[in-house]
Amino acid sequence: MPALVVLTLVLAVVMAATMVVMARELLRNIRKLNGAVQATNERLTPLTEELQSELAVTSLEVDGLSAQVERLQAERQVRARQRQVRNLGRNRPRGRRRSRRRR
Known about the structure:
Strand content: under 5%
Oligomer: single chain
Number of strands: 0
């Protein structure tokens, strides 16, 4: 029985040591990962700022183009109405027309 107790204690010590080693490795890898994330953030920050400025310019361009499209559509509708009014005036029945040709 004392051998079983000794083996249990040895196993507990080995398990504790393994957990300590794993915890140290985990902390080391977490620190490495944090460093890599910070380096990546430092490299991506200028790109993010550039993309945000490009987005602002593009949104202004889109707003301008949308306004221009709306203006053009309004002009097109006005011209279509004017054509309809002209066509209505031409298509009125004016009675029977005689041909200019003599028979």
